[in-house]
User: Which sequence fits this backbone?
């Protein structure tokens, strides 16, 4: 009995180290579970508690076919991710329509077409809301939806293709660097920046761009119920403000999110509740996002000292 | 020359043990909650920020129908908090908050008894009824209901 009491006393000796071990253990469990949840839940529906009937998919930044991840987060939107989200929408029986929030200057024509086709394959009403920029490839995407709502000052249109690049053989010569041309197939290194583009090559590249431009025009004409000639007249690469685009038939309605929701409510004949669909994120994505946010706020803090010097005003 | 040792016969430190009052217990819990905030709650800060982006009052409505993952996190946090109180009282007879407030658990505190006496931590029915019952019991009877159930006491050690 006495021995038992001694053991008990020994066990009950309060040492800071044991206490820290317990706290550390609890902290590790919490951190692990919190990480697993944030990795696992992101990418499914956001705000699971709000069961909605309209999926909200955001398309922002340059359009690419594949995601480009850096330690400072991923830039732009990849067609791979958007298609993945659209596939999830298709499987979700509660979703009756999709709202695409677009804020992108365009990008890869392939990515634009992939997203556009995926949207057209959706068997439900779709609406685009061009917030600030929905130009070029992003306009291609927007035109694939049933209805386009844009802010009157938003930048839209810009139906054109460009493949401009820097050519610097002069710079290389100045630094005594020689481009040793070794090719099998005379057009294989067409467009490399280390030598001057031949006239014939320029004509070939221009023809390719024209062809892509033609695809773009056909797609927009078909999506917007415009004639090819009418679209070709608009497809000078010129960007249009939302109000201009409305007059030209490139946009259906001027407004914002409210108008887009009202349109969907009219089509669905039901109240609209949005559910954000985001791509699934890995642990790496979460970590890089934290890093990106830290860098952003660090930069923001530094810029607060400079705010009186460099201001862009509207 | 052999050194002589003198026994000054100074009086030893003396302590008085008595049942801990409500105020001491409350302060101990507040200190422990601050520790738990750092150790258990803080890793979930991003999760709660995402789930409840609005203000406290805006979120009150949302809380009525929160998702399975929110319920899971609440449950997990409660269980980890229960583990904190249970393990510390089982191994050391007191938590950090209790140590600062100079109170400790007295009696045969087995793991099971320690677990039962801390069930008040759980924010589920019927345990949250104890949030009202226990303070009244401490004021009226000087010991909490779960303490009487487990045959333990929370005492304050005062040096005199």
Assistant:
């Amino acid at each position: 009995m006495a021995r038992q009491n001694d053991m008990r006393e020994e066990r009950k000796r309060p040492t800071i180290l044991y206490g820290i071990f317990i706290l550390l253990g609890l902290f590790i469990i919490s951190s692990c579970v919190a990480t697993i949840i944030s990795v696992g839940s992101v990418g499914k529906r956001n705000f699971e508690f709000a069961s909605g009937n309209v999926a909200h998919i955001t398309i922002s930044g340059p359009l690419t076919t594949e995601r480009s991840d850096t330690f400072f987060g991923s830039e732009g939107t990849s067609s791979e991710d958007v298609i993945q989200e659209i596939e999830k929408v298709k499987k979700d029986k509660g979703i009756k329509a999709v709202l695409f929030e677009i804020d992108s200057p365009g990008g890869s024509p392939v990515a634009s077409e992939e997203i556009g086709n995926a949207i057209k394959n959706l068997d439900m009403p779709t609406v685009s809301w061009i917030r600030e920029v929905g130009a070029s490839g992003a306009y291609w995407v927007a035109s694939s939806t049933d209805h386009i709502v844009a802010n009157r000052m938003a930048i839209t249109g810009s139906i054109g293709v460009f493949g401009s690049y820097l050519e610097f053989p002069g710079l290389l010569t100045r630094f005594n660097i020689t481009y040793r041309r070794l090719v099998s197939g005379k057009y294989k290194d067409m467009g490399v920046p280390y030598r001057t583009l031949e006239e014939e090559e320029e004509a070939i590249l221009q023809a390719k761009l024209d062809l892509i431009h033609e695809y773009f025009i056909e797609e927009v004409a078909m999506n917007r119920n415009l004639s090819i000639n009418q679209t070709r007249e608009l497809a000078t690469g010129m960007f249009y403000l939302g109000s201009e685009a409305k007059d030209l038939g490139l946009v259906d309605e001027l407004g914002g999110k409210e108008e887009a929701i009202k349109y969907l409510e009219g089509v669905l004949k039901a109240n609209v509740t949005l559910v954000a669909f985001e791509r699934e994120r890995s642990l790496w994505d979460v970590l890089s996002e934290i890093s990106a946010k830290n860098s952003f706020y660090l930069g923001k803090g530094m810029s607060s000292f400079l705010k009186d010097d460099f201001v862009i005003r509207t | 020359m052999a050194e002589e040792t003198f026994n000054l016969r100074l009086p030893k430190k003396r302590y008085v043990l008595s049942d801990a009052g409500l105020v001491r217990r409350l302060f101990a819990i507040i200190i422990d909650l601050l520790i738990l905030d750092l150790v258990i709650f803080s890793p979930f800060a991003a999760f709660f920020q995402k789930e409840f982006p609005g203000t406290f009052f805006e979120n009150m409505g949302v809380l009525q129908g929160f998702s399975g993952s929110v319920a899971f996190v609440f449950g997990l946090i409660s269980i980890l908090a229960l583990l904190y109180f249970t393990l510390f009282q089982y191994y050391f007879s007191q938590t950090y908050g209790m140590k600062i407030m100079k109170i400790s658990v007295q009696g045969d505190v087995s793991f099971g008894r320690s677990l039962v006496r801390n069930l008040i931590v759980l924010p589920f029915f019927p345990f949250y009824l104890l949030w009202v019952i226990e303070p009244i019991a401490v004021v009226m009877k000087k010991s909490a209901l779960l303490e009487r159930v487990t045959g333990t006491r929370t005492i304050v050690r005062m040096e005199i």
Q: What stands out?
A: Residues 68-92 of chain B form the longest helix (25 residues). Chain B touches chain A through 33 residues (CB under 8 Å).
